[in-house]
Design goal:
The chain is of the alpha/beta class and 144 residues long. The chain has helices at residues 19-30, 42-49, 57-65, 81-88, 103-114, 130-143; strands spanning 5-12, 32-40, 72-76, 92-96, 118-122. The chain is globular, with a radius of gyration of 15 Å.
Length: 144
Amino acid sequence: MKKKYEIGYTAGMFDILHIGHIETLRRAKSMCNFLIVAVGTDEFLRKRKNREPIISFEERYEIIKSLKFVDMVVPEHNLDKISEYQKYKFDVMFAGEDHENEPVYIEAKKILNSKGVDVIYFKHLHLISSTMIRKRIIALKEEG
């Protein structure tokens, strides 16, 4: 049996919510008693993804807040996971496997592990991403 954590933390932009997001959040909640989800602000999305949000932060916040397996939603302003830990005192952080080799995540994992916090990277179970959806929309628009 997998360890059941008390407080879990994960973050995302959730600009185009899809089944991959839902499954990741569901899996995270199954591993902790209380799940905190940070939603990237519009400013952070612009900086991190170098594009405009499709859905406003306020709307993305409400969408994530409405999910039954999310206990708390907070804004994410940057990639500083250590300051988030200091605020929320989570004992596990969840992230997608696509972040595993990013220097900021590698450093955060080292520091979080030294504080007794586990970092769990989820494999993507679905062959879908927000980028793929955006490309599909653009292709359909060009066809039509």
